[in-house]
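User: Predict the complex.
Assistant: Input components as received:
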Amino acid sequence: MINPEYLENVERLNAEFKAAEPFPHIVMKDFFTEKIDDVHDAVLKEQFHEQNSDLFQFQQSDDCKNATQQAVKECYGFFGSKEFLDFISKLTGIAVNSIDMSAFIYDDTDYLLPHDDRLEGRKIAYVVNLAKDFTEKDGGALQLFEDKEVVKSIVPAFNSLVLFEVSPKSLHQVQEVFSDKKRITLAGWFHA
Amino acid sequence: MPDWLNADYESPAKEIALRFGEDGVVGIMDVLSEKGLAMLDDVSWKRKYEPLEYSYSVAEVSGKFEEEVQAFLGKLLGFPVVFDLLEARKFEQGDYTVLTDAMKPAEGIAFFLELSTLPEEGGGYSSFVSDGEQFRIVPIKNALFVVDQAGLKSFTKYVNHHAPNPRLVVFGVARVKNVI
């Protein structure tokens, strides 16, 4: 299911993850070799709830452990499997043993303002991008801060997996979506 | 009478004070004169940016203006007030304020003298919360909103890319002036 390019080069990925600036992270494109289109379609059939506050505006599904769609259930099960948790632990150098996962849809004008994700137990944040055909001008980029400035923008690319270490340095935001495209993701945290 | 004030408000109706007393929030329209509407045309804006807390621009107001606003607000509410803060604020696309963990429920009277109109769907409105959102102040050009914000927290909703113009507002926090 995972692109063998990644499975066979965990040490190199670990070096890349640790060396990344402004804080440890990695973007792995074409991450899954199969079923990702099924997951995309299944996510859109899940129930979403409007989330609107000072800090954010988007739609969020229930926790994917309660997913109604088989492909989403399987994805949740795979992320929480020992095999995948071991892969993530090796890749990041941080031992993780459980996950949580929700699906998100950001429509035009939706956003998530700067925050650092810190909460007890959260070690690695992840985003599975299921958005199609996003370009820089569509917004919706995952943006990483150094001090008060955005120093890296990760434009959502379909079938990419983004990981970053949760720490006092991990200030990030989801840029406002500037178009009618839907920024669809599965996202959550690996815990320890 | 200050030259920025609409002459109709030289002697404000008593109903305004009564409404504020009953509801804790009051809004009045057409507050400014032509000169008043242009008061922020030539001000010098300074950026305020702390990613986890706020993003907007501020401009100082003169001491004379503050005294005049203080006197006007006191007349409007029927009791003397003194400002702890009075400044002009500009919220452009991408600007916001958020609630923080360290933020305590506010005290005093919040003052919003609006210099531009912003449709609600563009963001930029002030949201007052206490165990959920209680009400919003949506900017209407030439309106004044006064809020008894005791026990409330507030934030300015992120201004999105559909906002046709910035929110321009003279914002203040006042308290009742103790008169012995």
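The first helix of chain B runs from residue 14 to 23.
Let me know if you want any component modeled separately.
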